Amino acid sequence: MADDGAVSKALADVYGLAGVGLQRVLSGVATVNFVADADHGRRVFVKAYQPGADLVKERAAIELSEFAAARGVPTARVLRSERGEVLHMGELAAISVWEFVAGQSGEDVGLSQSQMIAVGSVVGHLHRILSVHPAAPRRPETGTLCDLGKAARKLERVLRELSRGTALDSDFRAWATEVLLWRQALLPRLATMLEHLPALTSQVVHGDLAVPNVLFHDGQVAAVIDFRPPLPRAVAWEVSRLGCDPRTVLRGDDWVRGFAGLATAYREENPQLPDGDLVAAVRAWVCYSGASIYPFDDLVDRRALLPESLQRYAMDRHHALVAVLERLDEAEAVLRELVGLTRR
What we know:
The protein has helices at residues 4-15, 55-69, 113-130, 148-164, 170-195, 235-243, 246-249, 255-269, 275-279, 281-291, 296-300, 307-326, 328-343; strands at residues 21-25, 31-37, 43-49, 78-79, 88-89, 94-99, 139-141, 200-204, 214-217, 220-224, 232-234. The chain is α+β, with helices and mostly antiparallel strands. It has 2 domains: 4-99, 2-Layer Sandwich (Phosphorylase Kinase, domain 1), CATH 3.30.200; 113-343, Aminoglycoside 3'-phosphotransferase, Chain: A, domain 2, CATH 3.90.1200.10. The strands form 3 sheets. Strands 1, 2, 3, 4, 5 and 6 form a 6-stranded antiparallel sheet that branches. A 3-stranded antiparallel sheet has the order 7-8-11. A two-stranded antiparallel sheet has the order 9-10. Helix 10 (281-291) packs across helix 12 (307-326). The chain is globular.
């Protein structure tokens, strides 16, 4: 884990930020994060990369953020070191430094309907400009959303680990076992659902566009953060991660209507996405989430930096999956109607 002293030394030696006060931020999975207060009231955000991190890919992720920012997407601005680096790779610490963005995510409470509309507009713009990114052309693809055979093997492995006993408490272990056995039984239904999905548009996307990575200020999107390297993924999958965010689904508001608002705003900014992709987004989320072993694998393998937080997320994600499955037909009918109304 990153050492505070090594991070402070890199900030002073390479970024000219001496005497900063570092405060650890309890967020992030792949990095240890800090807020640093510098001279004259300046505040920056620091990401310290874990040993073994692929820093070439991390640099590519930062460059994708810059690509989006240069085309009008609100992002956090990366600060270059005095050597011109977007990511400093030192002997004691590998870090990137960012302008601090004042804002909050909907990570704890989910998104309101007005926030879903705001994020739909920004993500539509983001996907439109990323559709011409040189790393990968936009194209229709089938069979790339998830691998159910691989999912089945992972399920079996995690269930074996749970049966042997882990560092997890016994109550959570019993609950996780019950949930993963339910997921095993769900796999044939997911296979049928995947067969009926249309060919989904694939292109370069953000790569980790979940609610924690969208910051809001005064009801508007202040920044989209934590891009991943530029790789092609299904656009519907990325849209669905926001529209079916677990805590948004569970917050008590009508998430179906909220998803419709997100989709309407998205289409205004990105009308070139085929209608079928938006209609299929909820089904795509069910298939991907139902086949995903995260975060159970991180928990049993003891890779989680914040295990208690991940346990809460595992519970929320499962309850949301059950809720979305129950309203899948309704949600798709609403999206079909939206597409039809928009066409007229």
